[in-house]
Design brief:
3 helices; alpha+beta; 2 domains; disordered N terminus; 31% helix; two-stranded antiparallel sheet
Length: 121
């Protein structure tokens, strides 16, 4: 087998993590044509079981938008016209200055009319 043929063989396989027993390999042709319906937490923005990365230069409002999104998701409030279909538990990791994050969350909370969180406790 020549080098180009070997490279192409490698491209049609993907490693998938299993339940703690290592990796299994699947052929892309076995799943490439499958459509999976997403379970949207915030329609078109955040889906269940997925990871998102918000990338932009400093000062491009990434953290401010994520703080607002967290409040909306926790309170079933549409986020910039994007519907949320339930209240979700939100865990916010503040990897910036704590005082900045508190001010930002507080400002969003007040601007949104201080939504009341439902509690089962």
């Amino acid at each position: 087998m020549n080098v180009n043929a070997m490279s192409n063989v490698a491209l049609d396989r993907v490693a998938v993590m299993t339940d703690g027993r290592g990796f299994k390999f699947e052929l892309i042709e076995n799943f490439a044509n499958q459509t999976v319906k997403k379970q949207w937490l915030v329609k078109g923005i955040i889906a269940q079981g997925e990871t998102s990365a918000w990338v932009g230069p400093p000062g491009s409002l990434k953290s401010a938008l994520m703080a607002e999104l967290a409040i909306c998701a926790a309170n079933q409030i549409s986020w910039h016209g994007k519907k949320t279909n339930a209240c979700y538990g939100v865990l916010y990791f503040a990897l910036e200055r704590a005082d900045l994050v508190r001010r930002r969350l507080s400002a969003h909370w007040k601007r949104m009319g201080s939504p009341v969180l439902s509690s089962t406790a």
